[in-house]
């Protein structure tokens, strides 16, 4: 049986659409890989890691200390490979530790990643114990500290155990002249700090999940 619908007389819309300013359109529809990363970061429920490579990137520390420190397992398998260790969080211990898989220390800092012609984005700069000792010394040194004092050029060389991180302080006055980048103003800095990560962003697995990984992927 057909349904009966109320007939509603629509009032003509006399409002005129306000055209979007050309400058705003350019910002919204900006191309390039950096913009892709910005959109992915906004849509993600997890911390977006800073991918340090041989190519030099410019960052700005948003805090003088890390926002999280933990032990992490690495398992060669399909899909997710890194898992937070449960040995300090679970009374029953950690299933991956029991297989002999040794966790490594990981420490994460909030940084803003800068790029030419792009808006800075928040990233999680994750490092190991050697690099965090380097950062601690830089933070304490009057010439370079605290970490939030300068901008930093960061890159890495080598692989595995031979990996080395290179950190070079960049003074604000040299940022535009030598790196062709705009300094982060107070308004933008405030916005970036509102988007900082904290420990709640970390995905802590359950005991059952790690037990499954230990059984299926490590044969234990």
Description:
The structure is a single chain. The chain is of the alpha+beta class. The longest helix has 12 residues, at 129-140. It has helices at 22-28, 33-43, 95-98, 129-140, 172-179, 186-194, 207-217, and strands at 57-61, 68-74, 82-84, 104-115, 118-127, 151-157, 164-170. A hairpin with a 6-residue loop joins strand 6 and strand 7 (164-170). 28% of the residues lie in helices and 23% in strands. Residues 1-30 have low confidence and may be disordered. Strands 1, 2, 3, 4, 5, 6 and 7 form a seven-stranded antiparallel sheet that branches. It has one domain (47-217).
Helix and strand topology:
Elements: H1 22-28, H2 33-43, E1 57-61, E2 68-74, E3 82-84, H3 95-98, E4 104-115, E5 118-127, H4 129-140, E6 151-157, E7 164-170, H5 172-179, H6 186-194, H7 207-217
Antiparallel strand pairs: 1-4, 1-6, 2-3, 2-4, 4-5, 6-7
What string, H for helix and E for strand, traces the elements in order?
HHEEEHEEHEEHHH
Categorize the overall geometry: elongated
Percent in strands: 15-25%
Oligomer state equals single chain
Secondary-structure-derived class: alpha+beta
The low-confidence runs, each spanning 5 or more residues with pLDDT under 50, are 1-30
**Percent helix:** 25-40%
Q: Characterize the main sheet.
A: 7 strands, antiparallel
Compact description:
Helices cover 28% and strands 23% of the residues. With 220 residues, it is of the alpha+beta class. β2 (68-74) and β3 form a beta hairpin.
Features:
elongated, seven-stranded antiparallel sheet, single chain, 220 residues, 7 helices
């Amino acid at each position: 049986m057909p349904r009966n619908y109320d007939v509603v007389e629509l009032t003509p819309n006399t409002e005129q659409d306000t055209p979007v300013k050309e400058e705003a359109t350019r910002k919204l529809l900006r191309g390039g890989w950096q913009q892709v990363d910005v959109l992915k970061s906004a849509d993600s429920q997890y911390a977006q890691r800073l991918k340090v490579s041989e190519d030099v990137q410019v960052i700005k520390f948003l805090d003088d200390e890390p926002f999280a420190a933990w032990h992490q397992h690495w398992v060669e398998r399909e899909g997710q490979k890194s898992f937070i260790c449960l040995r300090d969080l679970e009374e029953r211990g950690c299933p991956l530790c029991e297989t002999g898989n040794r966790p490594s220390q990981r420490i994460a800092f909030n940084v803003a990643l800068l790029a030419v012609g792009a808006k800075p984005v928040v990233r999680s700069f994750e490092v190991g114990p050697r690099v965090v000792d380097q950062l601690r010394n830089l933070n304490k040194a009057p010439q370079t500290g605290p970490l939030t004092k300068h901008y930093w050029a960061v890159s890495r060389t080598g692989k595995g155990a031979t990996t080395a991180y290179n950190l070079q302080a960049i003074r604000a006055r040299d940022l535009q002249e030598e790196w062709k980048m705009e300094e982060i103003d107070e308004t933008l800095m405030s916005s970036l700090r509102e988007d900082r990560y904290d420990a709640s962003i970390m995905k802590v697995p359950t005991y059952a999940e790690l037990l499954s990984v230990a059984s299926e992927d490590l044969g234990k």
